[in-house]
């Protein structure tokens, strides 16, 4: 018996199992809920997840054809059958909002991608090279920032033509200056740090220094700007579609849905209010996530 006890003591305590992903996820969720603004952050993420699901698989959330008319059911208020009511042609408004999410989010995603890629490229070159090239690029950025974004987007659409893709390109071009200005400032800061100078002194190539040292340390503020620009792009795309520059009827899109219902605002409020509420919810959710990313001691790390 004593030999067996000595053997067990020599072997040490039994190894404990590594914590599974589920308890870790639950603990992180509890920490988020207990911190200030944690519930609003979770709701914001949930809103964007639902909208993304609408865009990727609209058929899972709507049972009506978004373009099928039913004059006998025109202008019905929200009910159990029609969650958002029906429009002036009897089309189910909720189905049109769900199917319109795909077009809106496609335009928003393309616009943000254009702004990030070209704005980051301009900001990186301007901040890293400096000199006269920096002065020329920044003067161009100043001119773009001096023009209201919506007005600049309308000018681009006037040159490219109507359509949801051209709307996305126009909104993306209007957001290039914001990304360029922000990344340039951080690239100039990182460019003068000792580890970057040591990398050059060690004979590393310029491209490798940029990818390995400059961009990773200058990218942080851009991440929060991406989510902020996401909300602004939703507003810009919806506004341009509201003005008639986006999709061609009867295809649904959030801005065009609000525009179609404005003639019935006095009698059928749901035609404009409910699609507008969806736009507001998405914009506020994107802004809330951006604020969380910006906080150094926030709930997102």
UniProtKB/TrEMBL annotation:
Organism annotation: Propioniciclava flava
Record membrane topology: Multi-pass membrane protein
Keyword Membrane among UniProt keywords: yes
InterPro entries the record matches: BP-dependent_transpt_permease, MetI-like, MetI-like_sf
Subcellular location, principal: membrane
Subcellular localization: Cell membrane
PROSITE patterns: ABC_TM1
Domain of life: Bacteria
UniProt GO cellular component terms: plasma membrane
Keywords: Cell membrane, Membrane, Transmembrane, Transmembrane helix, Transport
Pfam family, one: BPD_transp_1
Family to which the UniProt record says this protein belongs: Belongs to the binding-protein-dependent transport system permease family.
Segment forming the signal sequence: none
Domain ABC transmembrane type-1: 101-290
BP-aspect Gene Ontology terms: transmembrane transport
Spans traversing the lipid bilayer: 38-61, 105-129, 136-158, 164-183, 222-248, 268-286
Protein name: Peptide ABC transporter permease
């Amino acid at each position: 018996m004593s030999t067996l006890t000595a053997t067990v003591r020599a072997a040490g305590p039994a190894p404990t199992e590594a914590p599974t992903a589920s308890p870790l996820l639950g603990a992180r969720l509890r920490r988020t809920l207990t911190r200030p603004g944690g519930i609003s952050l979770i709701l914001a993420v949930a809103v964007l997840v639902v909208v993304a699901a609408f865009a990727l698989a609209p058929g899972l959330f709507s049972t009506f054809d978004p373009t099928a008319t039913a004059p006998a059911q025109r202008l019905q208020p929200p009910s159990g059958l029609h969650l958002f009511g029906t429009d002036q042609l009897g089309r189910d408004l909720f189905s049109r909002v769900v199917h319109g999410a795909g077009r809106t989010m496609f335009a928003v995603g393309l616009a943000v991608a254009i702004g990030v890629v070209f704005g980051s490229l301009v900001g990186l070159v301007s901040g890293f090279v400096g000199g006269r090239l920096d002065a020329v690029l920044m003067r161009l950025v100043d001119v773009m920032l001096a023009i209201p974004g919506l007005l600049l987007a309308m000018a681009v659409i006037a040159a490219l033509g109507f359509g949801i893709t051209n709307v996305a390109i126009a909104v993306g071009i209007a957001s290039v200056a914001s990304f360029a200005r922000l990344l340039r400032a951080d690239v100039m800061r990182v460019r003068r740090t000792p580890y970057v100078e040591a990398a050059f002194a060690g004979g590393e190539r310029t491209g490798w220094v940029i990818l390995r040292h400059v961009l990773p340390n200058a990218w942080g503020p851009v991440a929060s700007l991406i989510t902020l620009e996401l909300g602004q792009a939703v507003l810009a795309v919806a506004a341009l579609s509201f003005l008639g520059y986006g999709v061609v009827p009867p295809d649904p899109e959030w801005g065009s849905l609000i525009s179609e219902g404005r003639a019935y605002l006095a009698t059928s409020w749901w035609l404009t209010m409910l699609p507008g509420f969806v736009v507001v919810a998405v914009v506020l959710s994107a802004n809330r996530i951006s604020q969380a990313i910006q906080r150094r001691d926030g709930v997102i790390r």
